[in-house]
Amino acid sequence: MASAFPKLPGFVPTQELDKPNFRKVSSVKQEQNREIKQLPNKEYPVPRKQPVQIPPQSGMFNPDYLSTTHAMHMPKNVANDSEELYQPSWVKMDRHVLRFSGYFKEAVVESALENYRIRKLTIFYYLEDHSLSITEPKQENSGVPQGAFLKRQKVLRADGSKTFITPEDFRINQDIEIFGKTIRLFDCDQYTREFYEGIGQQQAPSFNPGCDSFETKTMTKYVPQKDTVMKDYLEHKLGGGKVTSQKQFLENDRKVLKFYVFSDIDYVLHYYLADDTIEIKEINSANSGRVPFPMMLRRQKLPRKFSLNQPGQTYAEDFIRPQDIQFGQPLIIYNRKFFIKGCDPFTRYYYQEKFNVDFPLGGQEEYQQEQKSNIIIPPHNGIGDEQDSLGYIYRLQPKPPKKDFFKWVDNQVNLRFLAMFNTTKPEDKDRVFVITYFLNDDSLLVYEPTVRNSGIPDGKFLEKRKYKNVHNNNEYFIPRDLIVGNEVVINGWRFQLLDCDEFTKKWYAENFK
């Protein structure tokens, strides 16, 4: 007799309540399952119930359509015994999972590092439908695809009984064969132990499966030890680093001991007390016949002996200190003897105060090149900066003139004046100019404003640079030369200063009282 109920899941009274899904099974799968003994899923007492899982509602924008679960619609005023009586097994065992840890050994060929590798697995057994899944924790640089080892499914026993694996087949310190892989179980979680105690099959204690060569040599993290001496050596080699003792640097900065030494010719030895470094300079004299070479030994710490240990293994006591330099005894520098002839007054005073040693004065002073007086400086032609042009007179390869940096930073102030030509020419007597004086570099800029229909081009009249005041012995202009009402001559042009802006008046009132 045909049923009047719609053939939909949940509306047919004759269907099995514990049937988890209603998917169609392919013919190939049916052919494989013909001889398998489909036993009903066995129910087990669980150690503790799972809490009611309320799904998150973050993606549900309408409060009338919220995501729900089966547990949220269970009756509230019904006893627990009657509640479990009518629940199917897949509801009772929902989210009850047994977790085991296991491993198997896999042979590794053509490798000098290892002969085998221990691959550790995590086995999840779902009591809901007696299926299982296997995952393998990922290891860095293992060279093996890891992660999902076996997707969730029912697995047949390997004994040919045509039955699926059940919880009774999992025992710690025993092997279980899954699709040809023999896995030795060595651990399980606390919930799994409580589950087996409830069914009267207590699990054996856990054990350590050990480590293979790959995990021992590759996965063990190397903790480097800080070598401060090597770090300081490398920093100084690259031109950086810091003084070991900050107090030594602050107390002895710019204090240098000067010795006059001799080794086939005369040299000057400088010992820097700030960082205990030494340099040797060659004394060059005119017409000596020798190629002038300024530095015999660049500034560095001088070792006591020619051979040193590896970088980072040489300590402070291996280098020469001031007490090692004594008059009358040769100073051996890289297997070369230097005889000390004397020192300067500061070095003598230092040895008397520090070591109570009387160091004699004397020695050949460095050759001071005489200033050439036959250089004739031609007058400036007005093109460019005069200081920049003088560089070509004193040096074959000129250097740019140095600027006063602090004056440039502290005096970012401009003084502006209104001026006119001091002339009787009718075409120039009405021309108005703005003279700007820059305090940061003492330069002047003359600018002519726009006058419509004047026939005279406006804009920059004189370039910004330093100009000389012919009324003050050709010295460069200073703020005291620019007084309102006076006449100034700038680059041959006579200007009459008429007025200045409010800032300039305030600046003159504060600085010239």
UniProtKB/TrEMBL annotation:
Keyword Repeat found: yes
Keyword ATP-binding in record: no
UniProt keyword list: Cell projection, Cytoplasm, Cytoskeleton, Repeat
Location of the protein in the cell: Cell projection, Cilium; Cytoplasm, Cytoskeleton
GO biological process: cilium-dependent cell motility; mitotic cytokinesis; mitotic spindle organization
Superkingdom: Eukaryota
Pfam families: DM10_dom (PF06565)
A molecular function GO annotation: alpha-tubulin binding
Residue span, DM10 domain: 94-200, 253-355, 411-512
Gene Ontology CC entries for this record: axoneme; mitotic spindle
Name recorded for this polypeptide: DM10 domain-containing protein
